């Protein structure tokens, strides 16, 4: 082993187990573990709820590294080159990221390290099961539709790498450059809004928490995932999206642990559905890699002329953000988001459709709100999902398929449990009216202590008329 130190640069891989870049760095020499909050290059800037999660995730990682994590804030290019020069570093190691701004920055850093300092950067795959350039159609072009991408492309490719064990770490293998006064708190990472009181009770952040979550899900919910995953009151999904985004657990660990549990319980159907959701995450990264413009540009250009409202100050947008549209399933979802930093997937689809179709607002406005308030905000999944819901994506739900929030609520939250959790003011309403309080007779509203417009809003749009308005807008949108 060489005596000169190497840098391991933590990014979206805040874990020790199954971390290929970290394992390689430890094999190469004494490691300086580094995290850089790069607000200079990031586009878009990290959202508020994500910063809250990151703060806790870094604290947890630092503890598992024996308080030897070196935190910095600023331009990663500048900081890394300076660290390499000042510490006679012989190599820099990291796991790859796929956001366009990160890929561009990392390429420049790699070149500068080599050209200016003759130091090699070594990058690894620590975040995806299949590299985006690895999967292609027979004619070598990228897939545009999920099912063939996943079933023909991924499942017939080389199987994902099996997870690696935690590398051996002792006192001597890690090197801290910071003084004891330079703590994580000095990065002023925490956002302006104090999320702790609201969000903290819902999450166990960090690598241990992620593994606890994974095993609780596999033991308790995998066997009814296929039907349970659509019912927001059941808590039958894994809630691993934030741990996967921050890399507290790798997709490889999730994939192989699920395969193992699925085989043990002999359950093909539920396992297959769960693995295909992990496949959707892969597909989002695939789309982002092959279409970096997905974050801001409609993948179907005919939607460029669509008459979506774009004002970020509109009263309807405010009502949507605050969970005050008068449609209980929409409002429950938006309040779940605000109170927990998370929203169930079925409800994300309902609130998304409501915003871009019934309220006719641009998907960018929904995407931006989710970006700021989701703890799992992820450039690939968020952009691809908003394009999907808006109908303008590669493999999107057709625009004319407009979710009816009342029918969706009645189907997926039949007993109104989800509504009652997040809209306590409606809790005494009978199930018959819980998804459409405006249809309840006055005596029913009275005995449930509800005055519409006072305790809970009247609907801000009428469903039938707003649906027709959306369809008319679509009809007026011509191919360029
Ligand atoms: C409008 C909209 C915006 C979204 N924004 C995000 C986002 O910013 N970040 C994010 O991680 N997911 C996003 N999703 C996808 C999905 O809603 C979440 O991944 C899922 O709800 C997370 O819950 P879970 O971990 O319990 O999922 P599970 O059902 O347990 O699924 C397991 C894992 O598969 C992945 N996954 C599941 N569904 C999808 C999907 N449709 N697309 C991509 N990956 C998926 C996630 O990593 C998830 O953790 C969005 C969906 C919609 C409709």
Automatic annotation (TrEMBL):
SUPFAM superfamilies reported in the protein's UniProt record: Cryptochrome/photolyase FAD-binding domain (SSF48173), Cryptochrome/photolyase, N-terminal domain (SSF52425)
Coiled coil stretches, renumbered: none
Domain Photolyase/cryptochrome alpha/beta: 4-129
Cofactor(s) listed: (6R)-5,10-methylene-5,6,7,8-tetrahydrofolate; FAD
PROSITE patterns, per the entry: DNA_PHOTOLYASES_1_1, PHR_CRY_ALPHA_BETA
Record-listed E.C. numbers: 4.1.99.3
GO molecular function: deoxyribodipyrimidine photo-lyase activity
Transmembrane segments: none
Enzyme class: lyase
Keyword Disulfide bond: no
Keywords noted in UniProt: Chromophore, FAD, Flavoprotein, Lyase
Top-rank lineage group of the source organism: Bacteria
Record bears the keyword Cell inner membrane: no
Family: Belongs to the DNA photolyase family.
Protein name: Deoxyribodipyrimidine photo-lyase
Organism encoding this protein: Neptunomonas phycophila
Highest classification ranks of the organism: Bacteria, Pseudomonadati, Pseudomonadota, Gammaproteobacteria, Oceanospirillales
